[in-house]
Amino acid sequence: MTGRFKILVADDELIVRESLVAWLKKGGYQVDAASGGGEALESLEKSAYDLLFLDIKMPDMNGIDVLRVVKQRYPGTMVVMITAYGSVESAVEAMKLGANDYLMKPFEPEQLALLVEKLLQHKKLIDENILLREQMATAAVERYQDMIGASPAMQTLFEMVEKVAAVDSPVLIKGETGTGKELVAKAIHARSARRYGPFIAINCGAFTESLLESELFGHEVGSFTGAVKAKKGRLELVRGGTLFLDEVGEIPMKMQVDLLRVLEERRIHRVGGTRDIPVDFRLISATHRDLTKAMEAGHFRRDFYFRLNVLELEVPPLRARREDIPILADFFLRRFRKETNKPVESLDKKAVELLCAYDWPGNVRELENAVERAVVLAKGRILTEDDFAFLKRTVGTVEPQSLEDMERLHIQRILNLCRGNISQAARILKINRTTLHSKIKRYGLTGSA
Amino acid sequence: MVGDGEALAPEGLQATIGVVPMGDVGEVAVRIVAAHLQTVLGLAVDILERRPVSDRCYVPDRRQYDAAKLIAALKECSASWPYLKIVAVLSVDLGVPILRFVFGEAEMGGRCAVVSGYRLRRNEDGTDAGLEVYYERLAKVALHETAHTLSLFHCDDPRCLMHFAASTKHLDRIRLFFCARCAFLLKKTVQTLLESHGP
Ligand SMILES: Nc1ncnc2c1ncn2[C@@H]1O[C@H](COP(=O)(O)OP(=O)(O)OP(=O)(O)O)[C@@H](O)[C@H]1O
Ligand SMILES: [Mg+2]
Ligand SMILES: [Zn+2]
Ligand SMILES: [Zn+2]
Question: What is the ipTM of this complex?
Fold first, then answer.
């Protein structure tokens, strides 16, 4: 019996309270009820609860205000907001304030069951100290969903994701390869109202034209040689969820028209079929290519582009947010230490400096691979510069051509190495500080790594 | 252990379950529910007289009947009936204030349960499930709800009758058995009941 979990239900409506309490009791949980915000806070003061169901609208004290107090005074209590139809906006605000989730009345039975199971599982992990130890390494502000990022650029991105998740329009995610576009897409899905639906990704560059068509649209029996069974396409399977079109720039022109039709008419035909099948999904696409150029060259349809690009997010390259490199490296080190079971503890100062100075053309994925390689091959408990020697050989393989570009790059590297210490950098560069300052200004360099 | 429902039944009752057909639920469905309660729970079962579905329990906004209200009404009218548990079988759509729909409802350790075949005839994708599947689902829901009246909680084992099944798809994954732990708890509860009431 799961009796050791304690749950509090705070709602001013008696029938809602009774109904939810009754359902939770059938799960064997210990459940109490409060008829308002004030009463809820009194109960929380008297005993500890694992989970609080909190109505957003209550006459004595609004649920958002109660949430603020709970997060501050009882951070160990997880909170699920109860909202009525039409108050989704306050639910989104609540999520920003640290609510774990929200449900709309009346709940879908499946959602309620999954949510309670998920949260209590999570709580169990925390209680067993597993998560706690991991979380101490990266403070809450440096983490968002499965993404790490303390730089202002990433913090801004996380805020954008939060806003974008609250609406259902198509999103286009731009960014160089390996910057984390897929993670951003997953985060949007996880924070959106479709989070209980599926997240289905398809890499449009990985299929031939006819295979991509049958992957997306599905096919009927006999539609082509070898189609011995009818098959549902991903557009059909993703019903209620989020479709992630990765490398959307690789979609052939003809299929761009087909997809445009799907987005406008919200229904599809399977390949070789005539039946209308309704579809329901949110579209997120990603590209590392400059689609404006592709449009100019006539490889990408303008109308399709504007359909995809209702909202736009850009994931900055890693070299534009170098302050994230040490925490990312640390995060990956922990992960690979666990996976490989090697007793690697940390990176030394020199190694961190090297990683911070490197330009990472393959962005976070390249960093992830580098740390993995270093951990796997490591001889000692601390990773040193030598463990990353393979990077040095590639530093500067894509060197700029002009003298000015060279100077700019060199100054930035030295600044990074000195972690923004101007005097130290000036000494190494053998120029005086005023000259360095004016060069920093002229080149628009960042003073710290 | 008995939950927070009130006393199990009036004085002098027999340890028998009364199954009440309500509204226009089919005769066969009721007999199948009765047969399963009898064999799986090992308690005697009587099929009682058909009764109308109370209009007071209808929720026009949701075009559903409130399962909790149906139970309250059933409790009231069955107060003097000499049965240990009362299980009503219906064919209307059921909901509770907090859930968009339910297949059945019961009070933990209480006396009454309601189950409905309304949402069990079709599969998730709208296709007809066929009579056999429909009856099997109804029997599972009836056993689940009746076991709640015998103080059984939800169970983590996804194939146990006491697992909370929120969809027909899930209901189909459940077997017509209780898992070893739930079966043990049930046996103990039923034994205690039989000892205190006699056959
Ligand atoms: N902010 C981050 N925190 C933690 N891990 C990250 C972060 N960004 C990226 N990663 C990791 O880096 C790898 C690459 O990320 P992802 O696949 O999302 O990039 P992408 O932009 O989709 O790349 P591509 O354009 O090559 O498809 C993944 O393993 C991902 O987990
Ligand atoms: Mg990707
Ligand atoms: Zn149940
Ligand atoms: Zn069980």
Answer: 0.88
